[in-house]
Amino acid sequence: MAKRPVTFDAEALRSFVTGIELGSFVLAADRLGRSTSAVSAQLKKLEQQAGTELVQKSGRHLILTERGEVMLSYARRILRLNDEASAIMLASALSGSLNLGMQEDFGEALLPALLGTFTRAHPQVQVSASITRNQQLLDGIRHNEFDLAVCWQADEAPLFPSSRSLGRIPMRWIGPENFDLKHYQQTGEPLPLLVFEAPCLMRNAATTALDKAGIPWRIAFTSRSLSGIWAAMSAGLGITVRTDFGRPQTVRMLNALPEPGEVGISLHQGQTPPGEAAGYLIQAISDFFAERR
C-alpha cells in the first residue's frame, strides 16, 4: 500500500515564509497577529511534517538549511495557489476600478504574472495599466491619477506616507553580445553609454560609477523609452545600466566594469484610501517582488 502523502499545514507554511522574508520570526508574529510562541510552534510543526530541520542557528540569526530552501520555494507556490483560490471565492464581492502605473522595466514580467491572475480572481474589478517613467508615475500619484504605482526608489528620495518599500535589487552593466569591452580598456576610448533623458536614476548610477573609477565615457544615445535603449543596444551602439527586470535574452552582463550599486523598488498609493480590491492588488504586488529578491 502506497504511503499517504503529507498534507502541510497552510498556516504553518505562512508563518515559515513570512519569517524568512522578514528575516525574523518575531516580526512574522507581529505581521500575522500571533504570539511569537505560536509562530515557533508552527515552525516546529512544519519541520515535523517535513521530517527535517528547515532552519538552523547562525549566531543570533536563523538561516535556511538546504532542505529549508527547497521547502521555501514550494511553500510560496502553495500559498500563492491557496490565496488565489481564496480570492476567486470572494471575487463576487469585489468590484470597482483600479489605475496602476509602473516602470517600463516591470511591464513584461509584472503584467502577465500579476494582472492575469488578479483579473481572473476579480473579474468585476476593471484594471487599467500605464507604463511610463518614474517622474510621470510620481506626478500621477501626487495628482491622484493612479491608485497604485510601482517605481524605482532613489536612496535620497523619501517615500510618501502611504507607500512601502518592496526591497532593493542590484543594477548591472549590460551590453550587446559582441561588445568588445577589452578594446575600450586597452585604448582608453570613452565607453559609449545608452541612457534615458535626464533626470534618470540609472543614468546617474552609470556615470557616477565610471567617474569614481576614472573610466572615460560619452553619451552615445539618449532615449525616452526603454524599448529605444534595447533597440540601440541591438544595433551595437553602446552599453547601459539596468536591472534584471525586463532584460532581453539577446544581451549580456559586463562584470568587468565598476559596480553601479543597488536601486530600491517602491509601491506608491494615491491619496484616496485603497478599497478592498486595491488591498488584494497591493498584497499580490508585494508577494511578486518578495519572491524575486
Commentary on this structure:
- With 293 residues, the chain is of the alpha/beta class.
- The protein has 3 domains: 10-88, Arc Repressor Mutant, subunit A; 90-170 and 265-290, Periplasmic binding protein-like II (D-Maltodextrin-Binding Protein, domain 2), CATH 3.40.190.10; 172-260, 3-Layer(aba) Sandwich (D-Maltodextrin-Binding Protein, domain 2).
- The protein has 10 helices and 12 strands.
- The strands form 4 sheets. The protein has a 5-stranded mixed sheet with strand order 4-3-5-12-6. The protein has a 3-stranded antiparallel sheet with strand order 10-7-11.
- The longest helix has 24 residues, at 66-89.
- It is globular and about 65 Å long.
- The two termini are 42 Å apart.
What fold name goes in the CATH topology slot of the largest domain? D-Maltodextrin-Binding Protein, domain 2
Give the number of domains.
3
Shape: globular
Helix share of residues? 40-55%
- End-to-end distance, in Å? 42 Å
Q: CATH class of the largest domain, anyone?
A: Alpha Beta
Strand order of the largest sheet: 4-3-5-12-6
> Which blocks of ≥5 consecutive residues have pLDDT under 50?
none
* Number of extended strands: 12
Overall SS class: alpha/beta
Mean pLDDT: 86
By CATH, the architecture of the largest domain is named 3-Layer(aba) Sandwich
The DSSP helix count reads 10
Strand content: 15-25%
Give me the CATH superfamily of the largest domain. Answer: Periplasmic binding protein-like II
Output the radius of gyration: 22 Å
The major pleated sheet works out as: 5 strands, mixed
Order of helices and strands: HHHEEHEHEHEEEHEHEHEEEH
